[in-house]
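Each letter names a residue; the fold follows as tokens. Both lines appear below:
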Amino acid sequence: MIDSDVFDFVERCRRHTATGPLLGDLLETVRNLGFEHLILSGVPLGGQKLAPMVELNGWPAGWFERYVAAEHAAVDGVCIYSAKTLKPFFWADVPAKWSDTEGSRRVAGEATEFGILSGFAVPMLSVHHWQSVLSFASSHKSCSLSPRQQVQLVTMAVYAGMSIQALSNNDDGDEGPLSDREKEVLLWAAAGKTSSETSQILGLAERTVKWHSTRAREAFGVATTMQAVVEAVRRRLIHP
């Protein structure tokens, strides 16, 4: 791959108006570097589910479904390490602390059934998640990228991530993932109020407050209301 290929992709990123064409363009471009599959997703933390966090899904048919159904993200060394670094890395270089576990080895073994043997991951900051990662997969036993090729791949990953965020922001409009009432409930939770206290403040039944809390947690794919509060603050949806 030559640098002009990367610049051409970056220029096309600005013109894509939907995720499908962007995914196809990126897949076609990175094939020149030996990658056949990719996925861009938020990195699940604290009980979050992976599926709602996926923004580009170029995984082989069947593998994504199995990965999600088996909750592999909780034990996959590549996924776990993606939450702990912002440096791009080869999958093979994930520290043994996370890669040499029974669960992580099982995930890697199952991936080979779908033609995934090696890969390269590009973690990045995200306005929608704690952190995101664009992970490229190859059917070769090991990835062979020169330092220059690594820079090319990272550049394309970052611009693809930026484009996805821009498209998502356009799709969200002014409403965002939370209703006004859900934001109110999270604000009072941030202030330390219980569901009972919030119900009295807002003049709602306590079960209604709990329902809004549940909807907010589901919107972010988190397990607790306080995690929803933190995520809403991080996305600048509420300002305690």
